[in-house]
C-alpha cells in the first residue's frame, strides 16, 4: 500500500505561502502543484 502524504498550505494572498512551500519541498524532496 502506498503511504504518500499530501500537504496543503493555504491562506490569504501575500503572506508567504510560496516561500514556505518551496522551503518545505526542498527539505522533504517534494513537489509543488499550484
Description:
The chain has 34 residues and is mostly helical. It has one domain (1-34). It has 1 helix and no strands. The longest helix has 12 residues, at 17-28. The protein starts with 16 loop residues before the first helix and ends in a 6-residue tail after the last helix.
Question: Would you summarize the structure shown here?
Answer:
The chain has one helix spanning 17-28.
Strand content: under 5%
* Ends apart, CA distance between termini: 26 Å
Q: How many runs of DSSP E, i.e. beta strands? A: 0
> What is the overall shape?
globular
Helix/strand class: mainly alpha
Q: Are there runs of 5+ residues with pLDDT below 50, and where?
A: none
Tell me the major beta sheet.
Answer: none
Q: State the helicity in percent bands.
A: 25-40%
SS field, number of helical segments:
1
SSE order: H
List the helices and strands and how they pair.
Layout: H1 17-28
Can you tag this structure with a few keywords?
34 residues; mainly alpha; 1 helix
